[in-house]
Description:
- By secondary structure, the protein is of the alpha/beta class.
- It has a domain at 250-332: Roll (Ubiquitin-like (UB roll)).
- Helices cover 37% and strands 21% of the residues.
- It has helices at residues 13-21, 47-56, 85-93, 119-145, 152-166, 209-214, 220-230, 236-247, 272-279, 281-285, 295-301, 304-309; strands spanning 2-6, 38-43, 60-62, 65-70, 97-104, 186-192, 205-207, 250-257, 260-267, 287-293, 314-316, 327-332.
- Strands 2-4-1-5-6-7 form a six-stranded mixed beta sheet, with helices on both faces. A three-stranded mixed beta sheet has the order 3-9-8, with helices on both faces.
- A hairpin with a 2-residue loop joins strand 8 (250-257) and strand 9 (260-267).
- Helix 4 runs antiparallel to helix 5 (152-166).
- The relative contact order is 0.14.
Amino acid sequence: MKVGIIGLPNVGKSSLFNLLTEAHAQVAKFPFTTIDRNVGMVSIPDNRIERIVEITKSPKMKYASIEFVDIAGLIQDAHKGEGLGNKFLSHIRDVDLIVHVLRCFMAPDVAHTSSILSPRDDYTIVRTELLLSDLEIVERRMAKIRKVAEFHDEMERLSKVKDALSQGEAPGEPHIELPLLTPKPEIIVLNLDDEGKFQNGIDGYRISVALEEEITEFDEDEKTELRKDAGVEMEGPAGFIKLCLERLNMMLFYTIKGEEARAWPVQEGTKMIDAAGKIHTDMQKGFIKAEVLTYDDFIKVGGFVEAQNLGLSKIEGKEYIVQDGDIILIKFRV
């Protein structure tokens, strides 16, 4: 699953990307520093895998991770190709979740596309470009199939999508095979100054990238107190990553094998056979069965073997729906 970071130029997209990924993407005070997208993996904060390792004493621990993409700034008329807009819009089509960063900080030395800083207006500019881009795609498809009788049902669906887009609304469930941007789930991030004083006039996840950069080496209690003083979200970047997982309907399961304990991200509703394939394709191809233990039972009895001896683990087949926190042991033929 991919999370794409979008917004106008110079709103803090690459700074947020660097904060999350420690990828050191270039950041500057002028527009279009980012031309090619930056891609990085972000570890998912997870107390459960840490607790599992405390019990198993596994020498290796691997957090689950999620891919983030830092996409260059969009400007007005991006859907017409302005500012390499067509290229940047194509990058957004590849992601599963859109993170829309809004600038909520005053910085005279950092260029902005407007003389007046208005997060709500900035949001409207970018969102309009996504709507217009989708509208063009829908209209092209309609023009192509308009006179073909066998596409009558699709034309009706496209007509409803076009009406919604024309009214500035994202289509709910379009049920059409087109690479549309506006139906993608979205999180609005308000990038505030390190004092949290800016009055933004729009709701979103409140974070100060500048503050987070300053407090990297502080302990968690100090970070929490400083975030509280700044009026931003108390959980900071970790809370933001958690919110991304919620919007993507993601959850975690765990494996303990040899020297490694590992967390794996999957979408809710994932079948065991597909979870096995995420671990290794050989496990999916040669799947026999899976032994499943809940995280709570693992913690309660202090280990997988102990749970087995007490009859707490369950044998499940390939159709089993993986649950959040499951600890799974796959049996397979090589």
